[in-house]
Amino acid sequence: MPVALDKINGPSENGSAKSALDPSRIEPMVFVRYSVPPSDPDNRAEYDAWLERVNFLCDDLHWLLQLPHDKFWCQVVFDEGLHKALDSFLRYCPRCHENLEHLPEAGLQRQLELCRLVFLTYLRMSTHKESKDHFITPEVFGEILYKWFLFDIPKIMDICSLFGKTNGPLLSKMLGNIFTQQPKYTDDLRETMPTILQVLSNIAARCGVLLETPGTAPQKLAHLEGAMTLTSSDFQDVLLYLSDTALTLHRFLDMYPAAASVFHQHNFCSVLANFYECVMPELAAQIKQQDFRDPSTRKKLARKLQQTRKSLVSVFHTIVQHVCLTSVLENVNNEEVVTSCIEDFLHTMSTVLSDRRFLAAYESMYSFRDNVDLLLQASSVIEASQFEYIQAAIDLAFATYGHRKSPRGDTNTG
Amino acid sequence: MPELPRLTGALRAFGTVSCQDEAGPSNDLALRKSLLLKKQKDRSLSWDNLTLLIKKNATGASNSDISGVTKQLIATAKQIVGSEESAETVECGAAFLFDIFKSVESVGQREATQLRSTFGPYPATAATKACQLVRKLVGWLPEAALAQLSSQREEGDGAASNEEFGRSIKFSMSYNVEEEDKDDISSEEDELALEDN
């Protein structure tokens, strides 16, 4: 009968029983760290040094993935060099929206091969049952992941940001498995929320905006260094930082919507809408005003800002969708839950009614009316009139700030 | 390309939920190469044994001829392995060069790839010279001695017998920014919207 890896004992050199998961069983390896691809591949020495690292990592990850189940787990648990190499990859690997067209084809192919190998390594690390003969007891698996920092919240977000766009179904399963087998990751996410909120707050402050706290209105910070005083290089940094933040959160929530509850508990929707309302116009104005050396930069940054807008709105949508709408659909027979979710939905939307640019952007991507229709179909305890004031506010916001995609319509509602 | 600011960078720096990763060895590339050579050494003839075998079996060359060529091979190996490496590592590299070039006439694609994956970037002229020196040594060896060396190499090749995890898993990724733009951005209309807002 197959035995879980964590329960297998083998004799050691001195005759005593030794776990199959033992540091003495790892192979001596030197996993090199990944580095950012060179910006100028014509600098041959720099390019060769980068490619050499990539080649070493590819060779070593091929080797790792060929190891039998028990040896693979010994290596990934006890080899600190491997942890650091994988972490360096997650930190510095360009995301797929970043431009690598300057890399020679051979280098690009190796980079993509390395991406595949890292993805497979993390996939194997998030699989507690590899086959009917090779598995780890789920609780022990969860403990191993957490104790040895094989995954942590920044790593999970990096993985989503890197691979989420094109490998969604597998990645969703991975994340589901990790969070299910180790509930402490949800606690960690909760603990991370203040830092995420602080990041948004810091970006806003760099743009000269003090984000709204309950009971106050957002303020422009005339006394702080604002966006108006940013150099074009600093401005690009701020925009790229925000773009990465928005896209990372968007991909993470897309891959693991269950995390939406944690974001919701921290009033993230309200902060996000307020952030959008105050910061995006500042950034758009800066793109027009800044003096960029390269004329293509303005267009590039405008696109980046537009991507960012969509990511921010998607984050809001995923939270509302998961916490309110999906919950209603999943609990149609439980009046108490349905009522609570609808109240939550009404409250969430009510708190963002003054963020009119945000409302218009939301309405241009998702239809509030469709959400309401869905709720009305799902439950008999809801009345359309409960949503009218929100719809009216959205229509007004859309009439002022909304932009309809082609074909253009005559109506000014969303 | 420049290192870009990332959300996860802030979470690592200011959060409390990730492993505080200290900087690793800055010479990890050198350590990696040394390890590779050590493994190579473990599974093939040592430089001392190799030179001994050549001297014992060579025909048509004196010991001093052989010593002259092996010294040149060591010097060439140093150029490829790196002048800062230890004598032991350089000898290991020389044995590796002998192993690679003993059955080929020139530096082909396969050999170049092997060299690059073992030593990283290397001077092509040194590889050509090493190949010529190995050809000279091999030219002095009878068939039987060469066969002995070849059988030892095959033992060392030891390809992995396990199937690689995830070979059949479909993975997709590209760095096509234009494509990304098509998905995420729209058009002139959005750009106008940007200006209006």
Element layout with pairings:
The complex is a heterodimer of chains A (414) and B (197).
Chain A: E1 9-11, E2 17-19, H1 44-66, H2 69-78, H3 80-92, H4 105-125, H5 138-147, H6 153-163, H7 168-181, H8 184-206, E3 209-210, E4 219-220, H9 232-255, H10 260-265, H11 268-289, H12 295-330, H13 335-351, H14 356-365, H15 368-378, H16 388-401
Antiparallel strand pairs in A: 1-2, 3-4
Helix pairs in contact in A: 1-4, 6-9, 8-9, 8-11, 9-12, 11-12, 11-14, 12-13, 12-14, 14-16
Chain B: H1 7-14, H2 28-43, H3 47-57, H4 63-81, H5 87-101, H6 109-119, H7 124-139, H8 143-157, H9 177-184, H10 188-196
Helix pairs in contact in B: 2-5, 4-5, 4-7
- In N-to-C order, the SSE pattern of chain A is EEHHHHHHHHEEHHHHHHHH
- Biggest interchain interface, per-side counts: A-B, 93 and 58 residues
The description of the largest β-sheet of chain B is: none
Relative helix content of chain A: 55-70%
User: How would you sum up the global shape of chain B?
Assistant: elongated
Number of H- or I-type helical stretches of chain B? 10
Tell me the structural class of chain A. mainly alpha
Percent helix among the residues of chain B? 55-70%
The parts of chain B where pLDDT drops under 50 for at least 5 residues are 153-160, 183-197
Give the termini distance of chain B in whole angstroms.
32 Å
Radius of gyration of chain A: 25 Å
- The SSE order of chain B reads HHHHHHHHHH
Q: What does the main sheet of chain A amount to?
A: 2 strands, antiparallel
Oligomer: heterodimer
Determine the mean pLDDT of chain A. Answer: 90
State Rg of chain B: 26 Å
